[in-house]
Amino acid sequence: MLNKNVEVFMACEKEAHEADIVLFGAPFDSTTSYRPGTRFGSSAIRRESYGIECYSPYQDKDLEDTKVMDCGDLELCFGNTKKALAQIEEQAKEILDNSAIPFMLGGEHLVTLGAFRAVLEKYPDIHIIHFDAHADLREEYLGEQLSHASVIRRCWDLVGDGRIYQFGIRSGDREEFYWAKEHVTMRKFDFEGLEEVLEKLEGKPIYFTLDLDVLDPSVFPGTGTPEPGGVTFDALRKAAEKVCSRANVVACDVNELSPHYDPSGISTAAACKIVREMLLALSK
Amino acid sequence: MLNKNVEVFMACEKEAHEADIVLFGAPFDSTTSYRPGTRFGSSAIRRESYGIECYSPYQDKDLEDTKVMDCGDLELCFGNTKKALAQIEEQAKEILDNSAIPFMLGGEHLVTLGAFRAVLEKYPDIHIIHFDAHADLREEYLGEQLSHASVIRRCWDLVGDGRIYQFGIRSGDREEFYWAKEHVTMRKFDFEGLEEVLEKLEGKPIYFTLDLDVLDPSVFPGTGTPEPGGVTFDALRKAAEKVCSRANVVACDVNELSPHYDPSGISTAAACKIVREMLLALSK
Amino acid sequence: MLNKNVEVFMACEKEAHEADIVLFGAPFDSTTSYRPGTRFGSSAIRRESYGIECYSPYQDKDLEDTKVMDCGDLELCFGNTKKALAQIEEQAKEILDNSAIPFMLGGEHLVTLGAFRAVLEKYPDIHIIHFDAHADLREEYLGEQLSHASVIRRCWDLVGDGRIYQFGIRSGDREEFYWAKEHVTMRKFDFEGLEEVLEKLEGKPIYFTLDLDVLDPSVFPGTGTPEPGGVTFDALRKAAEKVCSRANVVACDVNELSPHYDPSGISTAAACKIVREMLLALSK
Amino acid sequence: MLNKNVEVFMACEKEAHEADIVLFGAPFDSTTSYRPGTRFGSSAIRRESYGIECYSPYQDKDLEDTKVMDCGDLELCFGNTKKALAQIEEQAKEILDNSAIPFMLGGEHLVTLGAFRAVLEKYPDIHIIHFDAHADLREEYLGEQLSHASVIRRCWDLVGDGRIYQFGIRSGDREEFYWAKEHVTMRKFDFEGLEEVLEKLEGKPIYFTLDLDVLDPSVFPGTGTPEPGGVTFDALRKAAEKVCSRANVVACDVNELSPHYDPSGISTAAACKIVREMLLALSK
Amino acid sequence: MLNKNVEVFMACEKEAHEADIVLFGAPFDSTTSYRPGTRFGSSAIRRESYGIECYSPYQDKDLEDTKVMDCGDLELCFGNTKKALAQIEEQAKEILDNSAIPFMLGGEHLVTLGAFRAVLEKYPDIHIIHFDAHADLREEYLGEQLSHASVIRRCWDLVGDGRIYQFGIRSGDREEFYWAKEHVTMRKFDFEGLEEVLEKLEGKPIYFTLDLDVLDPSVFPGTGTPEPGGVTFDALRKAAEKVCSRANVVACDVNELSPHYDPSGISTAAACKIVREMLLALSK
Amino acid sequence: MLNKNVEVFMACEKEAHEADIVLFGAPFDSTTSYRPGTRFGSSAIRRESYGIECYSPYQDKDLEDTKVMDCGDLELCFGNTKKALAQIEEQAKEILDNSAIPFMLGGEHLVTLGAFRAVLEKYPDIHIIHFDAHADLREEYLGEQLSHASVIRRCWDLVGDGRIYQFGIRSGDREEFYWAKEHVTMRKFDFEGLEEVLEKLEGKPIYFTLDLDVLDPSVFPGTGTPEPGGVTFDALRKAAEKVCSRANVVACDVNELSPHYDPSGISTAAACKIVREMLLALSK
């Protein structure tokens, strides 16, 4: 029988009513200040997922046993940030209404704000766990408040002090690092203290946002703003698995893959494997 | 409503029962002798088709008005040529049984043999129009009869003299050029004489096979075996449109795009535009 | 003596009070819908200009004899289109107030709108000569009116019918081509008729906007949306020289170079040479 | 005096009768399922070997003091797996008949099967030490038994349980990992336990097969199927030296370099250096 | 039988005493002022020659029937221009002493000077036919007389007025173009007048030096200094064949391929095909 | 106000009389024996510095608070090594005369010799701390004494035994390693013992020369001669900071970035971040 072509992240073939996790892409990069191209991230992850396996020897689990749907990429309006964020918010809301976990693939990091607004509405007590090379805590960037460089600050605007836990941060301007001391919990350079944070947040609804540039550029060269001195793949894999398996993650995202800057494809492979491990850890 | 991700060549969204042309990909390159990678051709064409428009100012026609289905790529077995050709033959047969024109996207040129066998079964009087840089008339290549370099010779095995018309040929070994004089009609270097051939073949069922390396490598660098001195994009566009609009094309293919060798993407864009022009010209 | 590093387009070393042409870069690409990266265009043109010569054997003229200043790239806000256009408008205004010709290097084509607004204020009788592969006449694109795909339509909003002359157009949706028949003068595919247009516009102030993707992608692969079937380098060189030497060009721009998509650098070289020829032809 | 061009791995200039190790290339990748291109591996290793030195500060030894011949690449038939494997087997047999150690440079991993068959004939008690990211233990892949993904399983078909020792494995489908528990000795993720295995196998003839993708993709991006989370260069260097200097290695291979996916050339450099260290350690 | 690896330009397998043409590479680029890398040109041409065929349908001739030896690349000292030129001169002399035609593959264009000095010694009445984008007639470049940008001027130093015929020149500084009017015969932009020059030079010994950047960068992007607006591949092929078949060419060179700047490989393919056509035309 | 374009390393905007550190580029690579291209290193570092931040969370310091001037790249003569070294020496001398620290950005490593000669004149008691993958201690290379592979040996010619301290060395020919035992202090592979050396050299004037290829190629692929098995980014960052903050560094250089070999840009980012950390540590 002849069927129209369906393309999904490997083994994520469930229909909406069966799914407890729903993947979707947010291909947006209009506020990227250095090198654009993360708009190609979500489709690259979907397409190249077939280069790795469904089975994880780390967790001894298989994607074939999970209930994940992949509804593809949103069609976002480049150059109009507000409209794009509204579209993302609506998509996340629909998935939450479907009683599933929204799992967003960026796009630049600003897309988190759209999904987070939908999640906050459903879970007013939401907390954020944030892995990143960059603090993303600027009040504004080049005169603009809606920027990839201020996305976590915008989330803070919505939830205030004590809700945000950052790990792996190794870049920002002086003000961000000083401001962070007062308003968020920031662990510089690595994941030390993650266990304690997870214990403390036990049971609380968590939005887990993962900027892949927390990885060292040697492992993940395909990103807009490579920042030398990052964590290893195994360090991230373990930390991400820990968050997804132990915390009450109600929504998450993986962003900042810019595949055109990496002709070898190792960045996309790293992204695919992290997504696989997160999907498996989220599937209880 | 949440739906699984569907990815098709732009505007080719028909279901099987509505379609009079059916696109499918044959991502195979195991016999490629120089640089492999055409396996990525069909998916690149599908994905990058969104970089051009549905409307053709050359023909003043729009893909929105056509009846084309895209059923995606076959999953072919690399390293087992016979099995792969059998899978392709079966797919072409199913489309023909559906009363539609099979429009195959390669893959290396050998894939033509699979589709051609299905077409020959339905149209014993089939003729071939072949655009290519290479003659593809070798009796064998490195001891192997099933090779991209001998695909037209294998078609000739099935239909004999007087059925094959070649255009644009500018490369081959001495034997191929000498053998061609006896058994096929070969136009070297360009498309001169195409009009006369189309007149002569009027009404006959035609298999149109287009190896994109007939184009000059400046226009189409992303191919396995670039051969300098080819035709311009406009020359190919006009010739391909002519074949598709005037001849009784009952099946066709476009092959030999190897997108990884062209980081600029102009080769994929050229392939997409030729496919669009052919689809429009075939849609009467 | 130790001096701070100055980097300008080759031989464009004049100070503001000496210059009759002023180059500036508008590194903006936030509305680009397909592949971003034109933000790197203007700096690449400046940097790589040293790969060609100051002297033109076509015009027998030398940049050493011209009066051009290069004041570098604007620092534009990505993701906020209105703000970016306002900054560009202000810069063009300042150059016009300095009695010089603003020569803007893009960036995506939307930057034209900012400069054009400044020019229109000074020259209410301004006419536009537009070279491009794409019509850029959409009323909106993905729900957005300020888009690279609608920039000429936005200019038309400001000046109305009879002021816009397009050449080389080979892509657009059906509506653009039909709308164009009523409102602008569009020459498809090439520069035929340019002489007549120049005669007709003699003495009128002209804004000359050149989207480099009017070139064939083989000559100019480094662009966001390569459109096969374009004009040759020599055809463009001659046409651009003709406009700049014969018409009363009061402002101009050259845009849509996206250098990262062309590792060979031939696109940047083509852009540099066109800019050189335009500067020489404008210097009377 | 004018001599024909000879190109060998640096300092491997011995004639057949002088050599105790013979290098040869097996440029084959027809069964590669993800990204082909390892056919270019062996010639890249040969050519780029001149970028590193003959002397190893790790072992304080110099290739100038070894007895190695390099007889270049086989001319293999793409698309006919059985024929290619037979050619490889014959070449390995000839080297063994010459009382030298065959040192094969792939190509994809399936080439191991050809060489292994020749070695098994001479050394019925042969054991395999296998470094790899992938288990390569599938019974079949896409319906095909002769596949890069099942090469070690095919070797097992010939020797049975207790002869195969795997290290560094971090990818495979569930069945492979479960099957491995019964039939081979598999160390996941790293080289722990290698010392014990070498002790246990003391004196036994060893076929050492090294799939370079056991390395982390950051170190070795130029491969068909990059699998994040691999070993460091120094870990591999030490382990490979250990095997070659302590075990009774009677044949070996190094495979899966796909140089076109790594424009920086660091993958080829890594391959060259590993080959140098192995040659030095094998030369007692 | 096991033999050391030999790598030659396809079908150029003759020994010294049989050859009437001898290929050699001069991998030198130390004076290159813009982008280095032509040092990789000659080995790329040799290696990639297997991507095209031995047979030319243009000339109906086959390399199998010629008597060509390939003695590989010289090992030149980077950074010491004089020493490198002396090595080249010696190699050319040895070939001439062997009664064969030296056919040098560059490297940057300065290598011509070394070979030309050897040829001039044997043929005091030598004339030069020079195809190039650049005039190469500077008295000095950045204070240096031995530069790729002054190589033809250095040849003129040795032979004086009336011996040098240039074609295709489209770049240089003003002084070069003015100086040329007095001292050499320069045809700008194309090959017009080549017939007349060949008639005039009938019987005279000719050194034919071909800088491949005379080609348009679309056809030949892989070069140090791409200069837009060049000739087509067919124009060059015809002109080069004409020179080699009609003139008394006693030595020649083909230079300025810089393969790393062209990941698609079309530049190397163009170089290979031009070399093939020249070898065939030289073989009478 | 319209100003000419100024391009400096981020935040290094001081004038000559204010500066206590002066950056300059030495874009020279003529003696590079493997892959040229370091000539593009210094300008890439300057341009891409804007991809990282002025503030260092490692040192809690900001470039905004330092006194650094950037006077751009020297215009060096390619192919004439002696002349180029003399130009570099002169520039370093001028900076020293200005009572500032010369901070040179290469270029290949040989540029160190030029700057070192100027420094030695002012500080006869100068000592060298040298980080590198390669020993650079050859007496000559391909018959040439002025080579990147012998630069430290040439420095030794000027200062003799006991003045040179090398770290991280993992490549060289046998003679270099044996010679080193007699004449310099060489630490192989890593930075162990750096503390002791710094203590011993306390108060002595230090020339700190940093060849970035001491980094592992995974972190720094963009270099002429990638040598697998290097140090991590953090290891280098800490060691370089230690030298700059504790030793009496009177001049320094950072060299061997070859950006074209790394399309991802991670090598340039690593270079920028090391330069930032060094500038901050030097600014007391």
Task: Provide a descriptive summary of the structure in words.
- Chains A, B, C, D, E, F: Keywords: Hydrolase, Manganese, Metal-binding.
- Chains A, B, C, D, E, F: It holds the Pfam family Arginase.
- Chains A, B, C, D, E, F: Mn(2+) binds at residues 109, 132, 134, 136, 211, 213.
- Chains A, B, C, D, E, F: Belongs to the arginase family. Agmatinase subfamily.
- Chains A, B, C, D, E, F: Its cofactor is Mn(2+).
- The structure is a homohexamer of 284-residue chains.
- Chain A is of the alpha/beta class and 284 residues long.
- The first copy, chain A, has one domain (16-282): Arginase, Chain A (3-Layer(aba) Sandwich).
- Chain A is built from 8 helices and 10 strands.
- Chain A has an 8-stranded parallel beta sheet, with helices on both faces.
- In chain A, helix 2 (81-97) packs parallel to helix 3 (111-122) and helix 7 runs parallel beside helix 8 (266-282).
- The longest helix of chain A is centred in the N-terminal third of the chain and has 17 residues, at 81-97.
- Chain A is globular and about 60 Å long.
- The termini of chain A are far apart.
- The E-F interface holds E 29-33, 35-37, 39, 75-81, 83, 110, 142-144, 146-147, 260-261 and F 29-33, 35-37, 39, 75-81, 83, 110, 142-144, 146-147, 260-261.
